[in-house]
Design a protein that fits this description.
Blueprint (H helix, E strand, L loop, with lengths): L2 E7 L4 H9 L4 H9 L1 E6 L6 H10 L12 E4 L4 E4 L10 H7 L4 E6 L10 E5 L17 E2 L3 H9 L17 H23 L4 E6 L1 H9 L3 H18 L4 E6 L3 E4 L2 E4 H7 L9 H7 L4 H11 L2 H7 L2 H4 L7 E2 L3 H4 L8 E3 L4 E4 L5 H13 L2 E2 L2 E2 L1 E6 H4 L11 E5 L3 E4 L2 E2 L4 E2 L6 E4 L1 E7 L7 E2 L3 E2 L3 H8 L4 E2 L18 E2 L13 H11 L4
Helix pairs in contact: 2-8, 6-8, 7-8
Organism: Haloarcula vallismortis ATCC 29715
InterPro entries: Alkaline_phosphatase_core_sf (IPR017850), Phosphodiest/P_Trfase (IPR002591)
Protein name: Type I phosphodiesterase/nucleotide pyrophosphatase
């Protein structure tokens, strides 16, 4: 049986890559499209790391596993909590491979911290594997646990770059550190696949999308993609390997920042309380300014060690408060609606939910900038999600127009602005490409769903497809693999975690929860 390597290219979009491919700057990606199969993909809403890496690996949308964004909002209980890997109630692609007697490795996968046991290995990654604010994790991110020491000794592996990229002006050591990380991901994935004779390996290049966010199509992003292109050439030359390239979502140049909770307050859906954060914001004291000063002084690690987390949390971000601090800034008894970033919107059950939802959706459809409506559509939650967790999800979901960043900060005062911290924003339109002995070249396919990838990989390995996967096996085979269906696996043994605060800190530093 042929091995399969899936390379997860966080935030990759053909909108970014096509001009470089046409200019001859990414020759191996061009060759892969010419000789293999490729397509654009559609992500689940919202088009974000949490939940879309799990949408890919489970073949389900968020209604099937219960995580709808980086945070879980429960207005009835008055709680907002940051999600981690133990909160996803689903088995994944590699669990089904294991159940069919095949070995798998998962390297640098977002949504996988804390790591859980599979046969053979898990290396957690992305924004959620953290140790403390501003600091990379040094242990506890692998399964089995001793693998971390091997990775560090053999490959000088690290989960996060040092120094951490935190602004558009940092084009030197911060970018070099990311490029070094991307190189290490490929080295680890290919070496462990061969040495351990693994049937399947997934590797994610998470910090690729961090470069997109800060630089879009500028030189740092191109440097990273040329590194990827070199590896694609090496991997595509292997005759013993199925190579799959895919992304969790796409990206496009940011045109507009829309501060949705500020808009909700302006339009009578949200009532505010005065918080300490609002006072500090008015005097210009925010995390972005303090981080810049600490980095210039070389004090980031020192401050992270000596300043208690409770004190660090009191310093607001420039765009206002996030996560559970949002509830401190509003009068929940009088507030009808609270939004997360980039899509999910929650209605307070203290009010007539259907009446509020009807007026809210109509009002959101009218929001515009100079380029037109901010949203390609506004949905009821139950119209975009399927599965046992739909009722726990948002009542409304906005599909942000490419180029629009829906920011959920409370207290910044601005409703709309031009690009702020991010030069590029997530879109639902990602990439897929495949070549190898088990795939018949098909050229360009019509746009596919991110949910189609897991069933297709299972079919390539001769495994039946679970009945709760919502994707389809793609037409990339010479003959119908006819693998049939199977009952789903439970994930009762998935590992939980009490590291929500640490996860939140890392998300903030990367700009996901500004």
């Amino acid at each position: 049986m042929t091995k399969t390597l899936v390379v997860g290219l966080d935030g990759a979009s053909w909108e970014l890559l096509d001009p470089w491919i046409e200019a001859g700057k990414l020759p191996n990606l061009a060759a892969l499209r010419d000789t293999g199969t490729w397509a654009g993909t559609r992500s689940c809403l919202p088009p974000v790391t949490f939940p879309n890496w799990k949408c890919y690996s489970s073949g389900k949308d968020p209604g099937g596993f219960g995580v709808f964004w980086f945070e879980n909002v429960d207005l009835a209980a008055g709680e907002i909590n940051v999600m981690n890997g133990g909160d996803y109630d689903t088995a994944e692609l590699w669990d089904y491979l294991n159940d069919e007697g095949q070995s798998a490795g998962v390297i640098n996968m977002p949504t996988m911290y804390p790591p859980r046991d599979i046969d053979d290995l898990v290396v957690a990654g992305g924004p959620d594997a953290v140790e403390g604010e501003y600091r990379s994790i040094s242990s506890g991110y692998t399964s089995p646990p001793e693998l971390a020491e091997e990775l560090e000794n053999r490959f000088k592996y690290s989960v996060h770059p040092d120094p951490l990229l935190s602004s558009n002006d940092e084009r030197g050591a911060e970018v070099d550190a990311i490029l070094d990380l991307l190189e290490k991901r490929f080295e680890v994935a290919t070496t462990l696949m061969d040495e351990r004779d693994l049937d399947f390996v997934h590797v994610t290049l998470f910090y690729l999308n961090v470069l997109h966010h800060f630089f879009w199509d500028d030189e740092p992003s191109l440097r990273a993609w040329q590194l990827v292109d070199e590896w694609v050439g090496r991997l595509d030359d292997r005759t013993d390997l199925n190579l799959v390239l895919m992304s969790d979502h796409g990206c496009d140049a940011t045109q507009t920042e829309f501060y949705i909770n500020e808009w909700l307050a302006e339009n009578g859906y949200q009532v505010r309380d005065t918080s300490v954060d609002a006072v500090l914001t008015r005097v210009g004291l925010d995390r972005e300014n303090l981080l810049a000063v600490a980095k210039r002084a070389g004090l980031v690690d020192t401050l992270a060690r000596v300043v208690p987390e409770s004190i660090q949390q009191l310093v607001p971000q420039k765009d206002g408060v996030k996560r559970d601090r949002k509830l401190e800034a509003i009068d929940l008894e009088q507030t009808k609606v609270v939004a997360s970033g980039q899509g999910p919107v929650y209605i307070n059950s203290r009010f007539d939910v259907e009446s509020v939802r009807e007026s809210l959706m109509a009002d959101l459809r009218e929001v515009e900038d100079e380029h037109g409506p901010l949203f390609t559509d506004v949905y009821r939650g139950e119209d975009v999600y399927n599965g046992p967790y739909v009722d726990a999800g948002p009542e409304v979901v906005v599909d942000q127009r490419p180029g629009v960043h829906v920011n959920d900060g409370i207290g910044g005062g601005t409703i709309q602005s031009g690009p702020d911290r991010w030069a590029a924003e997530n879109t639902p339109y990602g990439i897929f490409a495949a070549s190898g002995p088990d795939f018949e070249p098909q050229g360009e396919l019509d746009r596919i769903s991110i949910l189609d990838i897991a069933p297709t990989v299972l079919a390539a390995h001769g495994c039946p497809v679970p009945t709760d996967m919502r994707g389809e096996v793609l037409p990339v085979f010479d003959e119908d693999p006819a693998v049939g269906e199977r009952d789903p696996l439970s994930i009762e043994d998935a590992v939980g975690s009490d590291d929500g605060d640490a996860v939140e800190d890392r998300l903030k530093q990367l700009g996901y929860m500004e």
